[in-house]
Amino acid sequence: MNEKTAWSLPGIPGLIALLAGYAIAAVIFFQGAAARDAGGPLGGIVMFVVLSFLSKGFFQVQPNQGKVMQLFGRYVGTVRAEGLRWTNPFYGKSNVSLRVRNFESSKLKVNDNDGNPIEIAAVVVWQVVDTAEAVFQVDDYENFVQIQSESALRQMATSYPYDAHDTGAPSLRSHGKEVNQHLRDEIQERLGKAGVDVVEARITHLAYAQEIAQAMLQRQQAGAIIAARTRIVEGAVSMVEMALEQLSKRGVVELDEERKAAMVSNLLVVLCGERGTQPVVNTGTLHH
């Protein structure tokens, strides 16, 4: 079932005609009563009843709103034209908002692709694009959006690890744009049958579950320490290499292989150590 346009007329001309009809009915009623003609008042009353029934066909449509029309339970169309409108008085009418809305999920506890328990939440921006599907394809489209969005969020979270740990693979923490697009596609696939378009979906909360948060923090800290140490060693080796090269080039001192090894060892200790070094002054020769 897809949306179609229902028949309706501009309401202002119809309202003017209705008021004119009431005036004519009043004139007929009072003229008949003055002339003591039973047909006059009866005609005025019948005309008034008919006009009152026709007045039920008036309705208002606000901006970004649709009126879904039904005739004895059968869908006949939707009116999106703004302002005062008039249609068949027998039509039943229901409002459907076409405005952009957002929904924020609760914090869900799920397992990521590595099996680690995490907490995740997301916000979904959506709007109704097909009023017929929204009203007739699902029982309650607003509740449908909420349940299916959380289901899609759970499904998406199991497809990625929380952290790729320097493997370069997509992860929830490092590939936000890709993950958000995946989440939007997952939700859209579920909500398409309800006439809903997902404008945007993005993660608003992401953390390890409380029971493993401390262990994972230690793991992250260890990774940071290793990375820092690797950088320090690389820099220290470069500095030692430069020192030996400069000493040899300028002829400051001639070092044999054993003394070079000792110098390299001492420089690496000085450059890579966490604490400040204590200088030792050697007043003897190189070999004593």
Name the quaternary structure. single chain
Return the CATH class of the largest domain.
Alpha Beta
Helix segment tally: 7
Low-confidence stretches: none
SSE topology string = EHHEEEEEEEEHHHEHH
Overall CATH architecture of the largest domain: 2-Layer Sandwich
Terminal-residue CA separation: 98 Å
Principal-axes geometry comes out as rod-shaped
The major sheet is characterized as: 4 strands, antiparallel
Mean pLDDT over the residues: 82
> Structural class, from secondary structure content?
alpha+beta
Percentage of residues assigned to helices: 40-55%
Which percent range describes the beta-strand content?
A: 15-25%
According to DSSP, the number of beta strands is: 10
Radius of gyration, rounded?
40 Å
Whole-number count of domains: 3
* CATH homolog superfamily of the largest domain: Band 7 domain
What is the element layout, followed by pairings?
Layout: E1 9-10, H1 11-34, H2 39-54, E2 58-61, E3 65-71, E4 74-79, E5 83-86, E6 92-97, E7 101-104, E8 108-111, E9 117-128, H3 131-136, H4 141-157, H5 176-191, E10 196-208, H6 210-250, H7 257-272
Helix pairs in contact: 1-2, 4-5, 6-7
Structure overview:
By secondary structure, the protein is an alpha+beta fold. It has three domains: 9-63 and 80-93; 101-208, Tetrahydropterin Synthase, Chain A (2-Layer Sandwich); 213-272. 47% of the residues lie in helices and 22% in strands. The chain is built from seven helices and ten strands. The protein has helices spanning 11-34, 39-54, 131-136, 141-157, 176-191, 210-250, 257-272, and strands at residues 9-10, 58-61, 65-71, 74-79, 83-86, 92-97, 101-104, 108-111, 117-128, 196-208. Strands 7, 8, 9 and 10 form a four-stranded antiparallel beta sheet that branches. A three-stranded antiparallel beta sheet has the order 1-5-2, with helices on one face. Strands 4-3-6 form a three-stranded antiparallel beta sheet. β8 and β9 form a beta hairpin. α1 packs antiparallel against α2 (39-54), α4 (141-157) crosses α5 and α6 packs antiparallel against α7 (257-272). The longest helix is centred in the last third of the chain and has 41 residues, at 210-250. The radius of gyration is 40 Å and the shape is rod-shaped. The N and C termini lie far apart (98 Å). 20% of the residues are buried. The mean pLDDT is 82.
